[in-house]
Amino acid sequence: MTDSVAAEAPPHRKQESKSYGQILRSTAVIGASYLAVTLISIVRMKVVALLLGPAGVGLMGIYNLIIDLGGSVASMGVASSGVRQISEANGSGDSRRIGMTVVAVKWLSAALAVTGALVLIALSVPVSWLTFGTDLQAMAIAVLGIGVLFRVVGTAQITILQGLRRTRDLALANIASTLTGAIATVAFIAWLGEKGIAPGLMLGLAATFVTAVLFSRRVSIAPVPRREAIRDQARPLFRLGFVFMTSALLTTGSAYLIRIIVLHADGVHAAGLYQSAWGIAALYAGFVLQAMGTDFYPRVTEVASNNAEVNRLVNEQARVSLLLAGPGVIATISLAPLVLLIFYSSAFVEAQALLRWICLGMMLRVVAWPMGFIVLAKGAERPFFWTELAAAAVQVGLAAVLVPWIGVDGAGLAFVGLYVWHTGIIYLVARSLSGFRWSHGNGLLTLVYLAATALALGGSFLLDFWPATALGVILAGATGLYSLREVLLLAPEVVPKPLRPLIARLEKR
């Protein structure tokens, strides 16, 4: 045996190991920052839950959605299309092209941010009536309009780091911005109660913007004339950006409509339960999904013209994502009451069934997302738009039927239904664009992990608490050990040298 297992591997294994290693390293960097962000978010959620209860958490969730929705419209997708444009320029090594795109993204986003903020402020009364059935929240919504300004210009700064794959700076920026934002939000809520939510969120976004600017200034960009950059880049940025904006609007808009459906059917308390379950389910899956969007999207965009390479990268990313996400999702399903108690309070434990359904949907989302990046990398605007439109229609339609019928749990079932449908559709679209097929190993792994998730979910509903918990913990432990073994074998070069003999022994089994 030698110190390096990878050195003994055949050439194709070396290439795969290197690629898996890159995926794991980027996931580790983003994942470490996401862990820090998660811990900060947990503390913030806990404090807000104790101070305001389910109703306050629900109100804060709706405010956040208004900011997301306003930001999606105001940005016109320029930041998202900017990631793709900067990634392509970065892949070509053309510093002037990079500079042109960066300057255009910054100035276009600034103009759009001011416009978006003014529009939301002007429409604060109608938005309050639409959301809450009263104008009492109009002033708070006007304050959120200023938050939209900071959201759009801050996202533009993050776009530069993401497009240039400055993973470390991006990770540090996420941590710093989340910490400062959480401090501002919690301070105002502790001071003013529910009335402090809107100004706290606004100041949190302002702190995020300042942090993003400080980190983006570390990047050296070739100086280019501003007017020339905007004239040269505005059209491609807006053309693809419109598709991204439409997608974000559909995604955020459907989430907003579902909150309204829950709010009008069961009240703000139920909206708080939904927000708590969604927040927890998104935390762990977000570890994988954020790394995927941050590093994988620019990487697959750089090779978008090579179908074989695109399909190889997507299969590799899908395998790593499922291995990392699966055990955590199963554990969350099994320990749902305890997780809700720890993250929030005993007042939120009644959301356990809802949390389990959303976790199943998150597992399906992890399966579907890597294929979606084929559509983005190819710049296939029409398929992207229609699949996103159909997804929003399916989720909102299911929620509109199920929530009035079975209560807030219907929103969780609607999320599952969305990804059952979307996974099949996005596979067909990806196959038509690049000839994508699941590898045999990925197909088998997906079936096994989905079966384990379904078994844990079924046990939680059909068995008493302790047998169900024991079954879920066993399934989470078994999949966790298998995932650990596979991850270590996929990229042995990222393992510290003292542990490499262990990898060699695993490889022989």
From TrEMBL:
Main location: membrane
PANTHER family per UniProt: O-ANTIGEN TRANSPORTER-RELATED, PST FAMILY PREDICTED COLANIC ACID TRANSPORTER
InterPro entries the record matches: Poly_Biosynth_Transport, WzxE
Subcellular location field: Cell membrane
Keywords: Cell membrane, Membrane, Transmembrane, Transmembrane helix
Pfam annotation, one family: Polysacc_synt_3
Gene Ontology annotations of biological process type: enterobacterial common antigen biosynthetic process
Protein name according to UniProt: O-antigen translocase
Single GO cellular component term: plasma membrane
Keyword Transmembrane helix appears in the UniProt entry: yes
UniProt entry tagged with the keyword Cytoplasm: no
Topological category with respect to the lipid bilayer: Multi-pass membrane protein
